Amino acid sequence: MILRFLSLFVLLISSLHASLNQEKFIIATASTGGTFYPVGVGIATLLSLKLEKKKGITFSAMSSTGSLDNLKMLEKKEAHFAIIQGLFGMMAWDGSHVYHHKPQKELRSISMLWQNVEHFTVSKEIATTGNILDLQNLYAQSFSISESDSGSRVSAEILMDILGIAYSKMNLHYFGYNQSAVALQQGKIKGMNTPAGAPVSAVSSVFTTMGPLKATLLEFSDADVAKIQKYYPIWNRYIIKAGTYPRQTKDIHTIAQPNLLITHADTPEDVVYLLTKTMYENLSFLNSVNKGTMSISLHNALDGLNIPLHKGAIRYYEEMGIKIPSYLLHVTP
Predict the structure, then answer these.
(1) How far from 32 is each of 39, 73, 151, CA to CA, in Å?
(2) What confidence tens digit (pLDDT) does each residue in 44-84 have?
(3) Are the C-beta atoms of 37 and 63 separated by less than 8 Å?
(4) Both ends of the chain: CA-CA distance in Å?
(5) What SS3 state is found at 328?
(6) Which residues, at least 6 apart from 322, have a Cβ–Cβ distance to it below 8 Å?
(7) Which domains does the chain have, with CATH numbers?
(8) By the 8 A CB rule, do 138 and 191 touch?
(9) 101 burial class (0-12, 13-18, 19+ CB within 10 angstroms)?
């Protein structure tokens, strides 16, 4: 009896000791109505399942307001990894736009994940042509541009500035994706901005309730794309195939930019190596979490990266025989 008690005591102490020595890492994502959050949860779940017992490493996904907030958390060491828009990776590394000539050279990339597709959804009466310039019909009308401190807001403002759409003339609201969808369905707003991997749950909700007779996803013309790429070539043409959303009978011609998984330069090399290896060896798991991850593959892992790779990611890609461009290997002082 005493031996049994001692054995249980030893097991308890060993378990407690292991938990105290367990490394925990946080992945910053975005609000729950988009793609960042469910994919971040999927990645964190996968990594914890595969690495907790073998390596004593666990991961958790943290909800946030998106790219802008995530980069702040990385800087303050409140998160170890982050999913961000490629646009923000470019601006943070260069010290441009919202980063006011303060380049964040401590950032390192891990992988391109999936395309962040622009979704400007408006009520049918606003969409007189179906083109993105119909947003001008929202002057003096209510429009949710996304949360005030989100990357989605900043990217929408940049796009509208380039195209000559004066969003200051709109009655702006700063709702998260799900809140925006509910407000649009209830007629409290006339449009919403929800960039994410297609399909976006908030957009699916709108089309399930309102359908194409009451709601429209605005399109970008070739001329619009050319104008945007003149300033920000990170955006490219993207076609949302018919059937992606409820009762969507035709392709929708929009644009997209890459979403990136990034970290801090001083994140341990072994941890980043294990993360990268585990993620790419278990893509079927991620595909089951969200359809937006179907495009994640080793073939395009480096596409759209504008921040040098972390040493741990370099190690894995070199093992897999992937040719890494020099600008992703060498950090410019």
Answers:
(1) 10, 18, 14
(2) 999 999 999 999 999 999 999 889 899 999 999 999 999 99
(3) yes
(4) 66
(5) helix
(6) 298, 301, 302
(7) 15-115+260-329 (3.40.190.10), 117-257 (3.40.190.10)
(8) yes
(9) exposed
CA 236, CA 218: separation in Å to the nearest integer?
16
β-partners of residue 196 are: 117
DSSP helix/strand/coil, 257: strand
Give the single-character DSSP code of 31. Answer: -
Distance of alpha carbon 238 from alpha carbon 216, whole angstroms: 17
In angstroms, the CA 129 to CA 170 distance is 19
Residues β-bridged to residue 60: 26
What are the angstrom distances between the C-alpha of 59 and each of 41, 49, 63, 273?
Answer: 9, 9, 13, 14
pTM to 2 decimal places? 0.85
> Which tokens sit at 64?
């946030």
If you count them, how many residues does the chain have?
333
| Six token digits for residue 285 | 């798991």
- The gap from C-alpha 125 to its chain's centroid, in whole angstroms, comes to 30
Omega before 103 cis (within 30°)?
no
Per-residue model confidence as pLDDT tens digits over 184-219: 999 999 999 999 989 999 999 999 999 999 999 999
Label residue 247 left, alpha or beta by phi (over 0 means left) and psi (-120 to 50 means alpha): left
Q: Give me the torsion for CA of 82, 205, 117, 309, rounded to 10°.
A: 20
Nearest-Å Rg of the Cα atoms of the chain is 22
Contact 215, 206 (CB under 8 A): yes
pLDDT, one tens digit per residue, over 296-305 is 999 999 999 9
Tokens of 305: 């990266």
